[in-house]
UniProtKB/TrEMBL annotation:
The keyword Transcription regulation does not apply. It comes from Arabidopsis suecica (Swedish thale-cress). Residues 1-22 form the signal peptide. Residues 20-104 form the Bifunctional inhibitor/plant lipid transfer protein/seed storage helical domain. Keywords: Signal. This is Bifunctional inhibitor/plant lipid transfer protein/seed storage helical domain superfamily. InterPro entries: Bifunc_inhib/LTP/seed_store. It comes from the Eukaryota. The keyword Hydrolase does not apply.
Length: 113
């Protein structure tokens, strides 16, 4: 009987964690979050300049939401100032935040990146 109770408890905990995690992933980013990510990480994504390793504050900021705010706000305006190809480098430099094969904005993160 104790084993059945343990299995049910683990199942309920898994559902709770999944629900909390999925609600956070779908939450939209505030203007402050978006602004902070670009302020802290912009140098690493700049178009037309060599790759610059991100600052610790950049990585700390984007780790909070797995680059969600940057990825959700990749627009045509992004491509005028920032380099799409540097998104995977930024992810890798900060601890492989994006899953290979996933999309960040309109840019697909290559397998093995």
């Amino acid at each position: 009987m104790m084993r059945a109770y343990t299995i049910v408890s683990m199942f309920m905990l898994t559902l709770l964690v999944t629900r909390v995690t999925s609600s956070q992933v779908n939450a939209s980013c505030s203007w402050t979050e978006i602004s902070e990510e670009y302020d802290y990480c912009g140098d690493s994504l700049m178009l037309g300049v060599p790759w610059v390793f991100p600052l610790k504050v950049c990585c700390d900021t984007i780790k909070l939401n797995k680059m969600k705010c940057i990825c959700q706000n990749v627009t045509e305006m992004f491509s005028q100032n920032f380099d799409f190809n540097k998104l995977s480098k930024l992810s890798h430099a900060c601890g492989d935040l994006l899953v290979p094969g996933s999309y960040c904005g309109v840019y697909k993160i290559p397998e093995g990146a």
